[in-house]
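Priority: medium. Attachment 1 of 2:
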């Protein structure tokens, strides 16, 4: 029984490590208006805006999403993402392919969702 917390901690750490390794990098949004860096931040994964082309929606360089993600049996990563600037928590799913990501963020019990495609910056 004393080993259960250790096993749970190792499972959580390995899920975080796998997500961080597969998602880690600099990504360009498909509309060309955002460049983000995805990297570990503590025990979570952070997506930090490095550059924003069109700031009319209130996005700015330095804005950050803090994500808690786990690899799913289908190979996607899902969990939640917190946007401190807006004080919003999203349901998040990320599909990773070589050189590309698709993110799906949802609010309102997954009734309102948005998909965004990203390509790796070389």
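Attachment 2 of 2:
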């Amino acid at each position: 029984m004393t080993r259960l917390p250790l096993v749970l901690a190792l499972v959580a750490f390995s899920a975080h490590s796998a997500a961080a390794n597969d998602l880690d990098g600099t990504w360009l949004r498909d509309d060309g208006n955002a460049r983000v860096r995805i990297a570990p931040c503590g025990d979570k994964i952070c997506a930090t805006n490095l550059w924003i082309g069109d700031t009319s929606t209130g996005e700015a360089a330095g804005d950050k999403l803090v994500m808690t993600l786990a690899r799913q049996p289908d190979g996607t990563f899902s969990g939640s993402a917190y946007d401190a600037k807006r004080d919003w928590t999203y349901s998040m799913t990320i599909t990773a392919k070589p050189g590309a990501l698709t993110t799906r963020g949802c609010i309102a019990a997954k009734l309102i969702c948005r998909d965004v495609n990203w390509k790796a910056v070389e």
